[in-house]
# Entry
Amino acid sequence: SRTTVSAVRPERRSTRERAGSAARPAPTTGMYVLLVDDERVNRRLGARMLQRLGCDYKCLEDGDQVADTLATTSRPFDAILMDIYMRRSDGSKVCEELRAAGVRLPIIAMTGTTGVRDVQRFVEAGFDLVLPKPFDIKAMGRALSAGKARRDKLNAEEDTKNGV
# Structure
């Protein structure tokens, strides 16, 4: 009997490529992110990832705290990462309320529920993107960058439509 094993070798980059990428700040550097999750371990892991991405952040343990936090913060947030299923609130309902109140920040759903109908429901609630759990730091960084780019485009289109 014969066994075949395949392996993927890591991509090799030149010293110049590595130095160039290290000198360039990540697109998330300096972002101020609101992380909302009822699970303490998820808040801790998320905070650690945000820190490594160069973000400043504030963590909340439930969605019922978001509107007050947005209204009372002295520094405006650049994005919201929010769990869908929390003990006291439903992330989709919170997102709908935020959009109805005129919140134009990127709002990204963090959830393990990623069926096609579920994702459609989250988008209809006003989420810009869905970040499937579990996720790693690269996925979080991509989601924040993509969410910000998408929301910037939507806000610019809305401003143009409204003559701003």
